[in-house]
Amino acid sequence: MASIASALIDTGTPAPEKTGGAGGSQAMAQGAGHQHPRLTSTTYATLDGTGQATVTFSRTFVNKPGLNLTETDATASTQPLVLRGLAWQRDSNGLYTGVTIQGQRAQLMPAITPLSGALTLVTQVVAGVNAIVTALTNYNVFAGNAAGATVSVIAVARSDVSAA
């Protein structure tokens, strides 16, 4: 009886996930110890003094993975953090092994002195417009310091290309 049961158990590698799923085509059961492939890498990083961190994935990816970058441990008193992937790390076989990320905090707009004084209204308006233009020229609202921020880095295998 044991030989019949073992003949019905597929001990090979299970099929990878499929969008929408699919029923099996054979009347067999997977072995009790089978494992589905891991499709994600979840790690944490702390941004350095330049607002960057290099993260090594917990698995490699054949194709460039999707990234989800989220600040963790944020407080109500900190400005929002904008995150992006800057550079991919790859091994000698071309597999994706990690990513360098960058974070920048939003910052408040520059303070503008309100119009006042004995100047004529036209002079005040011109001076005010000039002050606003000067203050906002090349101003980067996302240039705030993000050093020390902790970031959850989730890399996910793409579903639109084959992993082989």
Automatic annotation (TrEMBL):
Highest taxon listed in the record's lineage: Bacteria
Region (Disordered): 9-36
Protein name per the record: Uncharacterized protein
Upper taxonomic lineage: Bacteria, Pseudomonadati, Pseudomonadota, Alphaproteobacteria, Sphingomonadales
